[in-house]
Amino acid sequence: MRAALFHCQQAAEKALKGFLTWHDQPFAKTHDLRRVGRRCAEIAPALDPLLRRAAALTDYAWKFRYPGTPYEPSREEAATALELARKVVEAVRDRLSDEIHP
C-alpha cells in the first residue's frame, strides 16, 4: 500500500507540473501539491476545488521514504488516494489540447 500511495502523489505531481510546462509556466522544485496546485489554479481557476483536495496527497511523497514511526495505510486510504490522483490526471488532461489525448 505504501508504494501505491507514493505513486498516487507522484502521478498528481507530474500531471500538475506537466500542465504548468504546457502553459510555459515555471515551478519550484517541490513535491508540495499545495504550491504547485495554486500555480495551476491561476491558469485554470475551475481546478481549484479539486487541487485543494489533492493537496492531501503531498505527504505521501515522503511519508514512507524515511525511517520513523511505522505506519501501514488501509485499503480505503489507498483507494481514496488513487481516485483523487485519477481525478487530477483526468482534469489536467481534459484541459490540454486534443493533440495530446490518446
Mean pLDDT: 92
- Radius of gyration of CA atoms, rounded to a whole number: 14 Å
End-to-end Cα distance: 29 Å
- Beta-strand fraction estimate: under 5%
The H/E string reads HHHH
Number of helices: 4
**Model regions low in confidence, pLDDT < 50 over at least 5 residues:** none
- Summarize the biggest pleated sheet: none
Number of domains: 1
Counting DSSP E segments of at least 2 residues, the number of strands comes to 0
Specify the overall morphology: globular
Helix fraction?
55-70%
Structural class, judged by helices and strands?
mainly alpha
Describe the structure.
This protein is mainly α and 102 residues long. The protein has one domain. Helix content is 58%, strand content 0%. 23% of the residues are buried. The mean pLDDT is 92.
Strand and helix map with partners:
Elements: H1 2-22, H2 33-43, H3 48-54, H4 75-94
Helix pairs in contact: 1-2, 1-4, 2-3, 3-4
Structure characteristics:
102 residues; mainly alpha; globular; 58% helix
